[in-house]
Design the sequence.
């Protein structure tokens, strides 16, 4: 199976690195092309990928064609490769805001298409990806397409109406979690830790907390209660964060993310 990437920006590279780390396919079965020749050729050379000279060549020579360009040029790129797409190939889009219906309009109503929203953690096998398939993608073909994301983390099949909210609490939230880790780290610096040590402590604590939550099957509230002793330090900190507006600020951040992505801001 050959997987072609049209566009090799940060998200495409995260997926590619995840696939390489998982040994999902041989490296030279990953084909790449982008608008910047030096960029994609050097990237392909570094990781022993196959650099194609055009977008059409990527589409022609791939079984899974991953559209990984910015939304503003998606229509132009699809017009460029449309002649190389066929029902024997699967188009996988990671383009934000472009629906399955629109992808069909721009390509072929008989084309198997998977719309997806991965996140940057795919690089390390810890990705979280939402997918939605059109009616032409089913059975083994659908399993094959989704398996690409299963190799890089977890997958949720969702209705497209949920994609904007998913993107906010998964895709964008990677930055928000890192923002929280950095905030803990800065607090550590305030009380005498080096930034490097404080960041290591905060990151490992966040990682361990997430793992414990997933492994326990308990709710976040239940895990919080386990740590908060009556009259103790932790509940004092929780109450202070609540008083400062921690929960409303998080929800406002998610609201703003969704509003921006849906054009309502």
Sequence:
């Amino acid at each position: 199976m050959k997987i072609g990437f049209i566009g090799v920006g940060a998200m495409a590279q995260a997926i590619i690195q995840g696939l390489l780390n998982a040994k999902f396919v041989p490296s030279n079965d990953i084909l790449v092309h982008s608008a910047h020749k030096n960029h994609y050729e050097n990237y392909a050379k570094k990781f022993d990928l196959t650099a194609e000279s055009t977008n059409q060549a990527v589409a022609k020579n791939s079984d899974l064609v991953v559209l990984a360009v910015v939304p503003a040029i998606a229509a132009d790129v699809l017009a460029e490769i449309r002649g190389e797409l066929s029902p024997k190939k699967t188009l996988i889009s990671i383009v934000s805001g472009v629906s399955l219906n629109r992808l069909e309009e721009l390509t072929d109503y008989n084309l198997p298409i998977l719309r997806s929203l991965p996140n940057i953690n795919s690089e390390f096998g810890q990705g979280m990806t939402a997918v939605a398939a059109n009616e032409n993608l089913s059975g083994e073909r659908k399993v094959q397409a989704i398996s690409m994301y299963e190799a890089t983390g977890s997958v949720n099949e969702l209705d497209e109406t949920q994609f904007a909210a998913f993107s906010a609490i998964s895709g964008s939230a990677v930055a928000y979690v890192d923002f929280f880790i950095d905030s803990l780290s800065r607090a550590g610096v305030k009380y005498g830790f080096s930034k490097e040590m404080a960041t290591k402590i905060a990151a490992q604590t966040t990682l361990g907390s997430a793992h414990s939550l997933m492994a326990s099957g308990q709710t976040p509230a239940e895990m919080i209660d386990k740590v908060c002793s009556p009259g103790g330090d932790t509940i004092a900190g929780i109450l202070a964060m609540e008083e400062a507006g921690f929960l409303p600020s998080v929800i406002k951040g998610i609201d703003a993310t969704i509003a921006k992505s849906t054009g309502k801001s």
Observations:
- The beta strands are 3-6, 30-33, 50-51, 64-67, 90-93, 113-117, 127-133, 153-157.
- The first strand starts at residue 3 and ends at 6.
